[in-house]
Specification:
By secondary structure, the protein is mainly β. 7% of the residues lie in helices and 65% in strands. A ten-stranded antiparallel beta barrel has the order 1-2-3-4-5-6-7-9-10-11. The chain is globular.
Amino acid sequence: MHDTRWLIAVLLTVTSFISHASEFNFDLSSDTVDLSFTPPVSENGLQMDFGLLHNQDEGSVAAAGLHVVDDATADGRGFIVGLGGKLFVIDSDRANDTGGAIGVGAHFRYVFPSYNRISVGGEAYYAPDILAFADTQEFLRFAVRGEYAVLRQARVFLGYRKVASNFKGTRSFDLDNGLHVGLNIEF
């Protein structure tokens, strides 16, 4: 019941941004689903994002991020980078532990200029013990993916993701580790 309450709270918070969302991301593997919403970037380059990853065997991770986002190339040719951090709330089914972490990291997307339907993207966030709380001692989220733009506002992708946590008194374990397929829609 405990994890159901916080999942409902996160989903209600995230769905409040749907009408204003600039991106919706949905991906899945055989045992994991990952949903995220990203409202439009503000005029000063700040971007928020909200997400929920659920693995049917290992547990769930809710996330809320804040980044400074811009094109990292001098000529504005499609290398978008976001630097910042994410607050992760972790509910482990296997270890029966809960906790959280503030991961520092970045995300990126590079669109190939000559083949503008093809892009690559990824993210990496790490929280050492000093940025972890409750039962969590360490947290890592890493993902890379190749994307193909089926439509101007819709991309399909294939990627690899690793989400791992280390809890006090238990071994480190993967909440997700493997390939996934997905869809990214821009509003």
